[in-house]
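Dear colleague,

Thank you for sharing your sequence with our group. We've completed the structure prediction you requested, and as agreed, I am returning the results in plain text so they can be pasted directly into your records. Please verify that the sequence below matches your submission; if there's any discrepancy, let me know and we will rerun it promptly.
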Amino acid sequence: MQTPKSQSSSPYYRTKLRGLYTTAKADAEAECGILRRALDKIAEIKSLLEERRIAARMAGVYSDTDPPRKTMRRGVLMTLLQQSAMTLPLWIGKPGESPPPLCGAIPASSDYVAKQGDKVAARVKAVDGDEQWILAEVVSYNHSTNKYEVDDIDEEGKERHTLSRRRIIPLPQWKANPETDPEALFSKDQLVLALYPQTTCFYRALIHTPPHRPQDDYSVLFEDTSYADGYSPPLNVAQRYVVACKENKKK
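Please find the predicted structure tokens below.
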């Protein structure tokens, strides 16, 4: 004797299930569209605020949230740098879309020019004559000479520098999502330049542990000859302040 077919496998229920799936998929795509437009609007607002900040600074007008560097306490500067790292937007691409340049570990394109107000790693000569990588802000770029003018972000060593493009590394403009775009992150044991915690200088380091979640930092080992193995204990550094190292040899 033939057993009756399950209701769930009947054409009616299969059609109904397909319809529910199609509706849910359309609703999800619509919601994604709304979220993407909201993210675009947030990015637009942030860009306008940055333009206003630069214009006000050029006019000599400052606010409580952006005081002149001459009066900025170091603790305030460190807090602002931390906030900049925390508010760096997360790259959310469409299905199959690859992360763009300046997302996580992906470098800028060869013809990229950093904009006024952008934060960069800049290689400058220190007081003792040695060269070091500092956190700097772009003032201008001269297309005739292919050179940047940048300001040291740290008031304690404030000085304007004129530097060639090879001495400038743009910082990431998006965080990479380890769950969807792990290829856009530096891998374990990769050599990088990382901002040493509570300073405005970049030093050579090895990736100890890449981020596992979007909100995670890198764990890095800084080169340090005061330790037996030549590296510091693991320290956390935000994606915002980790860039590729152009020098391969260990000093």
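Summary note from our side: The two ends are 83 Å apart (CA to CA).

Kind regards,
the structure core
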